[in-house]
Every structure is written in structure tokens, then in C-alpha cells.
Specification:
GO molecular function: phosphorelay response regulator activity; transcription cis-regulatory region binding
Number of domains: 2
Helix content: 40-55%
GO biological process, one term: regulation of DNA-templated transcription
Protein name: Response regulator transcription factor
Distance between the termini: 46 Å
Order of helices and strands: EHEHEHEHEHEEEEHEHHEE
CATH topology of the largest domain: Rossmann fold
Oligomer: single chain
Largest sheet: 5 strands, parallel
Shape: elongated
GO cellular component, one term: protein-DNA complex
CATH class of the largest domain: Alpha Beta
Number of strands: 12
CATH superfamily of the largest domain: Response regulator
Radius of gyration: 18 Å
Structural class: alpha/beta
Strand order of the largest sheet: 2-1-3-4-5
Strand content: 15-25%
InterPro entries: CheY-like_superfamily (IPR011006), OmpR/PhoB-type_DNA-bd (IPR001867), Sig_transdc_resp-reg_C-effctor (IPR016032), Sig_transdc_resp-reg_receiver (IPR001789), WalR-like (IPR039420), WH-like_DNA-bd_sf (IPR036388)
Length: about 230
């Protein structure tokens, strides 16, 4: 039985979602604000987190940031009434895996939860583990655990997705990192919108690495990217 943590300040909606998922065999934890939701997460370690963005005490972005400080893998789905692209991108940058705009159907939520649970189950161990905390990339030292990229005395603090993409690039040094594989792994699907979001992260990584001209992230048209140095 998969354990789902739902954090939603609209009590009526929260109860509907909670009851519907319990009827379909999920074990449910429910919190009506971000601070209580974070406490439940820390105490119960759910298999997936479903949370609203706009909430009292602690918003969904802050909850996600706190979760990702200690947990890089538990799937997170945002529920949002917002439609601005910047809010969706911010959610992905902080480590979210999927989102649903309100109003949504219960069937769609359940399909997305099951897809993420299955994908993360199948993907466990698919990406080779980083044996050491630090990886040398030209003149840079990349610490995946701390999500930092350091050159000389300057340290760049990476977002969760930036660190995940750079990890995959560095573990496939001088080989093609397939775009579709990363999109399915980190975003949940390879839609046009998510592909554009990934392009933004690649651009940011190129900017972080620009002071060592030997280091390049090369676009392999129609396939993916390659880190070379």
C-alpha cells in the first residue's frame, strides 16, 4: 500500500481527495497547512507528496525546499490554481516532479500518482550512484550532495534540478545524455513545455561553467546533450 501525504488548505477539497484515494487503496496522511504537512512528512516518510502552492504558515514552495534538503527522490506533485509559467517553472526548479491545475479530476490525479510511483520504483538504481561527494569537471568541483559547483574560491549553489542534470551529464562524460530519458526521469513526461524547461536549466549550467573554456555542454540535435572537457 503506497503512502500519500496530501497538504491542502481547502478543507473540503482535501477531504474529497483523501477519501477518494483511500477508497482506491492508498494510505493517506492529510495536513491543512504547510508547517503541519512538513511535520507529517518528517515523521512518516510518505511515498509521494501532493501539495498546494498557496497555503498558510508555509507555502508549497517552502515545503518542497525543506523536503529536498534531505530527500532528493520522493515524488512531489503540485496542486495549483495558478496558471503563470513562472510559477510552474519555479516548482520544477525547487524539485517538484509534476503539477495539476485546479480544478482537476480525481482520475487524472490518481493516474499521475501511480505513474510517478512506478517510474521512481523502476528508475531506482538506473542512474549510477556518485561514489564520492565531489566530482571534478575541468577547473570546477561539483558536490552533488551539497548541490554546489566551486571554482577557485567561488561557489555556485545549484537548484535540485540543476544538480540532477549536471550529475547525469558528468556520469556520462563525453557520451550523449539522452534528452527524453532525463525528461521522463525528472519531469515525468517529455512534453514540449517540459523540454523547454530543461533547455533553461542547460543554459544556466553553461553559464555556471563558462569560466573554463575547455568545459562545454554540447547540444546533439534531436538526441540530447554531451558534457565534454
Amino acid at each position: 500500500m503506497s503512502k500519500v501525504l496530501l497538504i491542502e488548505d481547502e478543507w473540503q477539497l482535501g477531504q474529497i481527495v483523501k477519501d477518494s484515494l483511500e477508497m482506491r487503496g492508498f494510505e493517506m496522511l492529510y495536513a491543512a497547512d504547510g508547517k503541519e504537512g512538513l511535520r507529517l512528512y518528517q515523521e512518516h516518510q510518505p511515498d509521494v507528496v501532493v501539495l498546494d502552492i498557496m497555503m498558510p504558515n508555509m507555502d508549497g514552495f517552502t515545503v518542497t525546499t525543506e523536503i529536498r534538503k534531505q530527500d532528493k527522490t520522493t515524488p512531489i506533485i503540485f496542486l495549483t490554481a495558478k496558471s503563470q509559467t513562472t510559477d510552474v517553472v519555479k516548482g520544477f526548479e525547487l524539485g517538484g516532479n509534476d503539477y495539476l491545475k485546479k480544478p482537476f479530476s480525481m482520475d487524472e490525479l490518481i493516474v499521475r500518482i501511480k505513474a510517478l510511483l512506478e517510474r521512481f520504483k523502476n528508475a531506482s538504481g538506473a542512474v549510477p550512484a556518485v561514489n564520492n561527494d565531489s566530482i571534478t569537471i575541468g577547473q570546477y568541483t561539483f558536490n552533488y550532495t551539497k548541490q554546489t559547483l566551486t571554482r577557485n574560491n567561488h561557489t555556485e549553489f545549484l537548484s535540485h534540478r540543476e544538480a540532477e542534470i549536471l550529475r547525469r551529464l558528468s556520469e556520462n562524460l563525453n557520451q550523449v545524455m539522452e534528452r527524453k530519458t532525463v525528461l521522463l526521469d525528472l519531469w515525468g513526461d517529455d512534453s514540449f513545455f517540459n523540454a523547454r524547461s530543461m533547455d533553461v536549466f542547460i543554459t544556466k549550467l553553461r553559464r555556471y561553467l563558462k569560466d573554463d573554456p575547455r568545459v562545454q555542454i554540447v547540444n546533439i540535435r534531436g538526441v540530447g546533450y554531451k558534457l565534454i572537457f
